[in-house]
Amino acid sequence: MESCVYVDHAATTPVHPTVARAMAPFLSDRFGNPSSLYRLGREAQAAVDRARDDVAAVLACRPGEVVFTSGGTESINMALKGVAFAQQLAGVGNRIVSTVVEHHAVLHTLEFLERFGFDIVRVGVDAQGRVDPDAVAAAVDAETVLVNVMLANNEVGAVQPIAEVAEALQRRAETIGRKPPLHADAVQAPGQLPLDVNALGVDLLSISAHKFRGPKGVGALFLRRGAPFLAQQSGGGQERARRAGTENPGGIVGMAVALEIADQQRDAHVRHVRSLRDHFFARVLDEIPGAVRNGPTDDRLANNANVGFAGVDGQLLLEALDAAGIAASSGSACTASSWEPSHVLLAMGADQDAAAGSLRCSFGLENSRDDVNLIVERLREIVPTLRQSHPLTPSVSAPAQ
Ligand SMILES: Cc1ncc(COP(=O)(O)O)c(C=O)c1O
Description:
Elements: E1 5-6, H1 17-23, H2 39-59, E2 66-69, H3 72-89, E3 95-99, H4 104-114, E4 119-123, H5 133-138, E5 144-148, H6 162-176, E6 182-185, H7 197-200, E7 204-208, E8 219-223, H8 249-264, H9 266-287, E9 291-293, E10 304-309, H10 314-323, E11 326-327, E12 329-330, E13 333-334, E14 339-340, H11 343-347, H12 352-356, E15 358-362, H13 369-389
Parallel strand pairs: 1-11, 3-4, 3-5, 5-6, 6-7
Antiparallel strand pairs: 2-8, 7-8, 9-10, 10-15, 12-15, 13-14
Pyridoxal-5'-phosphate binds next to helix 3.
């Protein structure tokens, strides 16, 4: 493989070698179905059970509160639809409170629920991309079935005050008589933020293995015991009938190992990526005219840098970086043929032009200071060239993941 400087760890991460080793036997001789009663099956079941214990230990929950899924998008769909439909059936109400800066997995699931009669309230954010816990609580009424706030934003790295949201909901419950379940999309958090579900005060929480050096196609949903939930996937009753279908033991084991490593090495990882991120910001803001920091200075994912280059087409910027061997991301979202600036940056008050020329670098353990210096050197050449040769025109760019 041709080498490149990979600074898109918010999109996905390389599988940790220890994770790959732990998974390998499940792709060869340990191929049993966990539901089978003979030894090969029982061993697969035991591996899944151990992995569930390990994931639960990191989330500080009961093993029975962990449901294995195919990734972040499925966990989020299960959480939002599962709670919403259960509450609707029970006649609790139709209102869901969320934020304007969520990932499309949340935004589009909420649009889906709107078609089933749910009333979605989308709370705004400040210029740093952060939601006000009291504004979230104020949007909650007695008919509210669910509150959803992401733990950390994938585009600008803003860390939301989830524990404060939970406290504000508790205070609100004194007035309206009940506290709706709180779901957090924590897909960007493992390896960077603590995931103790009780300290966070959440009832549901979604994670995805490939964001923390695990395999793709595996995730987990923390579903607090007693939370209202209607299963959407019917079948053989696996995962205590909350998510039917033969489990993926290799993937599940890989995720558990990756999560343990991410949790144990969190402090060292955060120190490393934060120093790279700060070096990147310091140089770019100092050396490239018109560069602005998007997102917060504090309460930000340690590995996330998002910079706006006014007057630069983000798509062309990514292409030029790619040609220079640098894999990064833009903040813009798109459909196949129409260009759309980032909904996150627009919600933070950026104008269309500034939102169009944004660049997200998300650093990982294998990145070095030399990588950062190389990226800055390339940007110093590319940004002025693009401003001159291609004054901003609408273009198609890939969504930030
Ligand atoms: C914040 C956030 N939520 C959800 C997802 C979806 O996760 P997955 O890729 O596992 O479906 C992503 C990743 O793109 C994300 O960054």
